[in-house]
Fold:
Amino acid sequence: MANSMAFVQIQRQLPKRRPVEERVRDWGEVYTPFPEDNLTRQARRCMDCGIPFCHQGCPLGNLIPEWNDLVTRDKWREAIDRLHLTNNFPEFTGKLCPAPCEDACVLSINSDPVTIKQVELSIIEHAFREGWVTAHPPAMRTGKRVAVVGSGPAGLAAAQELNHAGHFVTVFERDDRIGGLIRYGIPDFKMDKKLLDRRLALLQEEGITFRPNAHIGGNIPADELRRDHDAVVLALGALRPRDLAVPGRELAGIQFAMPYLTMQNRRNAGDHIPDEEFVSAEGKHVVILGGGDTGADCLGTAHRQGAKSVTQLQWRPAPPEMRTPNNPWPEWGYVFRTSSAHEEGGERAFSISTKEFIGEDGRVRAIRAVRVEVEDPGDRRAHLREIPGTEHEIPADLVLLAIGFAGPERHSVVRELGVELTERGTVAMNEDKMTSVPGVFVAGDAERGASLIVWAIADGRTTARNVDRYLMGSTELRGS
Structure:
């Protein structure tokens, strides 16, 4: 490193967010551009530690200290080469990853970590501006054909790696556009979809075939898929939503989070959705059940749609401001975090449990809730204890359920292929990520459960390595 004391001399700095009153009026990205001279200073804070635990925190094993050092020495071309060595889509993770690498940074022990995520994003954007990110079709083809079912980050990563190995790869997507959750589950204010389209154009140029509107088990029989391909990768995601079985659940106005987010993304993309079908928060009292990233995405979307009020409820108590002794560094810190959507308004309430949805003329009008205590906050299966005398009603014209996912949807591709599932509802696999059906592999949330985009890419890479070995007897793919 050029200056091993920079982490003391330079304070952590992040890009600024656009003013709240401005950004809630449009769907543009929240963050403003970060000047490269500021970014270079931030990269200098990487302290050349003896053991870079950021590697341990990153599922992709990104070579973080190496490309930090290259940026400080203005060697951007070498930096993007090192970044792409482990990460197929750094523009996606640079926008959407919660950066577990930063929680594992040695500086996080008692100071502010290096702005790793922003350095990553700046490297890839610099490379695109310079024209360094180009298509790399394989030099030769193996003649093997691989089908990838699902075009989210896991499917795209697996597809690119297998294509690099020389196989003919076709990505099947049941939606009308390629991109999976990045396309329809992530609000535009978190990532402009132009970044996705830019990368997809390169993947097509490399020789990957994309087939949207391709529903395996629907308009494409599953046995046809297996017959025409030497291997199949299931990158189905984990979109089966968790429901809430309380009285009044049948009332109109209670909506799962993902269809709600998808409708707005489709409208932003120019699709016509009739007003009578479109779910909008405009002028409504909105209650979001669930305190995770999906709930925050609903919160930001409701603000932009013009909600009258927004309340986000979570049954767990508020996380602590700092790590507790049972959550030591370099683990992911279970601490109180505020997203850009929370900054925009609304009420955030913890230790609240929903007892009943109250309706009027067949539509929800309120939630009956109660304050609860968790017997053991550190236990994810802890029992709740209601606090007597705390029942209350919360106005609710629209309720959005963002309480998690229960594995892949049990749609026709899972049923027709006959793959076994685990007790958790995910696709069962062996140590090579092959399912119970020979030649059919799995990647991403479908085998892991709903998780981070960085894990999806890592899983896609690992699955691709195993598929290549299955087809060829050996492999030179890196995996993760």
Q: What stands out?
A: The CA atoms of residues 29 and 191 lie 6 Å apart.
